[in-house]
Each structure stands twice: as structure tokens, then as C-alpha cells.
Amino acid sequence: MSTDASAADHPRVAIVTGGSGGIGRTTVERLAADGMSVVVSFAGNPARAKEAVDAVMAAGGTATAIQADVADENDVRALFDQTEQLYGGVDVVVNTAGIMHVKPLAELNLESDIDAMIRTNIRGTFVVNKETQARIRSGGAIINFSSSVVKLAFPGYTGYAATKGAVDAMTLILARELRGRDVTVNAVAPGPTATPLFLEGKSDEQIDEFRKLTPLERLGMPDDIAEVVSFLAGPARWVSGQILYANGGII
């Protein structure tokens, strides 16, 4: 059941899935700095989630951590229930939770690689978006996470890019299904970004190759991506149904 209220009537409240590390953690801190009360949704590392909350609190912001498996509808429903109990409603949902296995298609394991990515990246996005559209207040923003590899088509990213292509489709259609709701729906598609998820298993030479791909000749930083999220979550009320490529100009 959705709760409508103008932004002037309440502090804005954001849920960030995958909010305990990487881009999610930086997004949590950025939205809190923007004045939002932020829920750090995490899957299985309470210590890292606590670190994210502590960082926000130390900077004078408001945050709390709630454990949830994004692919489990009961967990996600409980996540929203607890958020509404704590803060009165939900205005922004940023779905950064995701997993990535980089292998050529021929080497992908159907269960540990493909099924795992489908469960978190596709089913997880679907479950979170389904609950969000039922709960989010008027003036809200839904921000999914895609990837520039959908268009860059780097070898080894077959499975991951396929799941993010599904996120693109979901995002574009949901934006139209919410006609008349005053809720924006967009996705951010980062390029090579210096996070543990991206850097894991890559040599210095490979990282340098990615760096040289961009006209700016550097990797993206989590702050670069969080800035785009902040824009979509706040002032960007006339941007909806878009995939924003935050990749330093690669494409």
C-alpha cells in the first residue's frame, strides 16, 4: 500500500540495497549527506553494514542497517515494513545489490554462475521493484543498477551483461507502468569503477587497459557513481525511463 505525502511534510527516506560495500556504501553516505534518512540493506555481513551506519552517524546523518535477501519476497517485504516503522515511509530506493562472475560463456557454470547472477541481479531487482512500486511515496525515485558492459560487450561478461540487459528492460517498462504516480524510474550503468567487485582477479596490466579506454584516462570512482544517484534521487524530476551511462565517455 503506497503512502503519498509531499516532500515538505517529511524527511526523505532512502533504502539502498547492497549498501554495505562498494558503490552501495558510497551511495549511502552521499544520500545521507544530502539530508536523507538512509536504510543500509545488506545480505550477509553485519559488521560491514554497521561500519556504513557508523560512518553516516559520525558525519551527523541518520542511518540504520536491515538485513534482507533481495531475491526473497518475504525479506524485502519485512525490509519495507521496518523502514516504514522507523521513518514513516519510503521515498527513494537504490538497488545496487548485485553479483558478477566474469568468464567466457563456455566456462560459465549454470548453477554457481548463471543461476546465482539471475537470482540476485534479475529476480532481486524484480522483487525490490515490485515491493517499491507498492510502497513508494509520491515524488519518489526508483534507481536500479545496470552496467555499461551491456553495450560495451567485453568478452567474459556474457552472463553478467545478460542479467543487466534484463534490468534495463525492467527499468524502462516500469517507468511507463507508473504513469501518473509522480515516481521516476531510472537505471545507472557504470563503466569500469574501482570497487572490490571490479578489481578482484584483475592484473595491474588489465586495470591499466580499462583505465585507458576512457577519454578521461582513469577508472571511475564510487563517488562518481554516487553523484549520479544523488542527481536521480533528488533534483532530477524530469528524468525518467532512462539508462544513464556513467563511464567517463567510453560510449
Keywords, please?
alpha/beta, single chain, 46% helix, seven-stranded parallel β-sheet, globular, Rossmann fold, 251 residues
Describe the structure.
This protein has a single domain, classed as Rossmann fold, CATH 3.40.50.720. It is 46% helix and 15% strand. The chain has nine helices and seven strands, in the order βαβαβαβαβααβαααβ. α1 (22-33) packs parallel to α2. The protein is globular and about 50 Å long. The model is unreliable at 1-7 (pLDDT under 50).
- Helix-strand category: alpha/beta
Shape summary: globular
CATH architectural designation = 3-Layer(aba) Sandwich
**Overall average residue pLDDT:** 94
Please give the largest β-sheet.
Answer: 7 strands, parallel
CATH topology: Rossmann fold
CATH class: Alpha Beta
Q: What is the alpha-carbon Rg in Å?
A: 17 Å
